[in-house]
Amino acid sequence: MDWRIYQSHGDRRGPGFYGTCLEYGHYLWWIRQPARALLCLDRAMGADISMSDPVVGSWPMPYAAMAWIMREVPRDLFCGNPRVHFQHYADRMNEPRKELRQWRAWACWALAREVRPELPGDPNHDVREPELEEIASGLELCGLAGEKEQWNRVRGGEF
Fold it and tell me: Which of 3, 76, 98, 124 is deepest in the core (most CB within 10 A)?
């Protein structure tokens, strides 16, 4: 399995793409590439999906997987700095679904801060980091039904 797995989706970023991202992310974790696995989950969060898509019923937004990978990554494997990644990603988001994808990136940034508190942010990146309540409100407004609650459960340690 490699990056070509995405080719069958073309420009479509719907439910099939979402499932592929999750599957590929799992595979990358399994072959000990946690940084790339996180990027796959990141891509999944940008998919154009709705609660009516069967894949969402089976595989909700991968906040728990994100937090678990960040927490469990062996320190001898490259994982980069997820906190900085999500900080930059949220601030530099573009269309489509820009606002939704920004709130999801900030939600993952908050998870990175909680799960890996030793990782520093980027002090040279001039961006206003949102409060947890703002992130929750953004997920409530833009996200899937129950997404805010799911994120809060992961923040509470439910992986």
Answer: 98
Q: In the prediction, which pLDDT does 3 show?
A: 84
* Token output for 139: 């997920």
34-87 pLDDT, tens digit each = 999 999 999 999 999 999 999 999 999 999 999 999 999 998 999 999 999 999
How many other CB atoms are there within 10 angstroms of residue 129's CB atom?
A: 15
Q: Give the pLDDT confidence score for residue 152 in this predicted structure.
A: 97
**142: burial class by Cβ within 10 Å (0-12, 13-18, 19+)?**
middle
Tokens 């990554």, located at residue: 73
Smallest Cα–Cα separation from 34: which of 61, 68, 8?
A: 68
- Distance, in Å, from the CA atom of 44 to the CA atom of 62, rounded to the nearest integer, reads 8
Rounded Cα distance between 135 and 105, Å, is 9
How do the domains of the chain map onto residue ranges? Answer: 3-155
